[in-house]
Amino acid sequence: MHILSPQLSKEHSLPLYVQLYEQIKHDIINKSLPVGSKLPSIRDLSKHLRISRNTVETAYQQLLAEGYITSRPKSGMYVKELELDVLQQETKPFPYQHTKNTPILDGPEIDFEYGSIDMNAFPMKLWKKYSNQAYKQEMEEAKSYGHHKGENHLRREIARYLYHARGVRCSAEQIIITSGTQHSLNLLCETVFKNCDQFAIENPGYDRARYIFENHRFMVTPISLDEDGLCTDDLRNSNAKIVYVTPSHQYPCGMVMPFKRRLELLQWAGETNGYIIEDDYDGEFRYEGRPIPALKELDQHDKIIYLGTFSKMLLPSLRISYIVLPPRLLQSYSAAFEAYIPTVPRVIQNTLYYFMRDGEWDRHVRRMRLLYQKKHSVLVNALTKHLEEAAEIVGEKAGLHLLIKVNSQLGEQALIEMAAAAGVRVYSIEKYRIQQSTDGKPLLLLGFSKMPIDQIEDGIKRLKEAWFA
């Protein structure tokens, strides 16, 4: 199979499919594509050129209609044998082709990826300083694996932080250090929820949580959302006794669960003797008023299992998260947790402990909140300025991403491909849906945490040109 690399330009007067058709035809006539050559599949070529599948399919259909290629069932497209002697064959470059000095994209690729951090903001010197202290301590003490819940002094620091920053009252004994949210959920499924059979989860919701529950053979019941988050009426109509929620900033839709809905959720837990798993994955980031306290703050009857992470502030690769268990569950399942060896190296735990003990964590949180607030403001202003009524911003009051609902007849995938052709990566929320949405407008996710602030507006300008020019 020949790899086609035609150079296409959205700025040219000819449509992209005509440019592609002309260049393939030119290569066939000049025998750059020999008789019998297999063309790339529509999917592979659209991905390679970062254009929509419709563009490739239309170009191929035109070549088929004019007899330059043939389609073999279950095999693909091939160059046909033609009577080319009657044509005056030339090897001139294709007239619409760019020269080497004319780039297709004006500037670097702009990636609105979610889940990474701004590496320039990571306090590498301080982290290295505390890491050296932790390694020195490790070599001197040469302990075994450490406490199965994690190092006690780190858990005390986390309990202090949670009380002051998130309104969560807990002791170090209630905290278990884990190597990521998925590990937290795995551990819960193998201990506390070992004999359960059904979980409720937001729809759309965090896909990796769903995978954990499904891999443990639990029935997963999708619960719909409204403007206040998870619909408690739908939760009551389910048979689930455990619900996984992201109330401080619903993932991925971004709404913040208001006080009334939080009370309704707690009431459900009391009435059903159920449990709430609260994933407070980026609760520190709120851009209107003060950060909202965690749902756990309202828990008077030990019904909430709280999950937290350091990944949104520090390097995700450090893999440090934690569980806050209600006292009653800790007492019931303490023996089960003792069977598990801690998965976060003690050196990393102690590095984080020194970082928190000396007040650097609190200072780092303030710096990151200010940095991400600036990026968030630039993004919202750029969307308002350049897309105006062409796109509605969804879930922009907190967190490290937002959604845009695009006023377009095209589907999500087509818009993503058109954006990619303009050098911009945006993302679908399809994988977060358990059931398909009935809203016809495409919904796309834009993360901004890792993106340089001076690229944000350029990225939105490119989206406008790609989708509405």
UniProtKB/TrEMBL annotation:
Which Gene Ontology terms cover its molecular function? transaminase activity
Residues annotated as transmembrane: none
Q: What SUPFAM superfamilies does the record point to? A: PLP-dependent transferases (SSF53383), Winged helix' DNA-binding domain (SSF46785)
Say yes or no: keyword Zinc-finger present: no
* UniProt xrefs under PROSITE patterns: HTH_GNTR
Q: Looking at the keywords, is Transcription regulation present?
A: yes
Q: Which InterPro entries match?
A: Aminotransferase_I/II_large (IPR004839), HTH_trans_reg/aminotransferase (IPR051446), PyrdxlP-dep_Trfase (IPR015424), PyrdxlP-dep_Trfase_major (IPR015421), Tscrpt_reg_HTH_GntR (IPR000524), WH-like_DNA-bd_sf (IPR036388), WH_DNA-bd_sf (IPR036390)
Occurrences of domain HTH gntR-type (ranges): 14-82
Q: Which cofactor does it need?
A: pyridoxal 5'-phosphate
Which key words tag this protein in UniProt? Aminotransferase, DNA-binding, Pyridoxal phosphate, Transcription, Transcription regulation, Transferase
Q: Of which family is this protein a member?
A: In the C-terminal section; belongs to the class-I pyridoxal-phosphate-dependent aminotransferase family.
Q: What is this protein called?
A: PLP-dependent aminotransferase family protein
Organism, scientific name: Bacillus songklensis
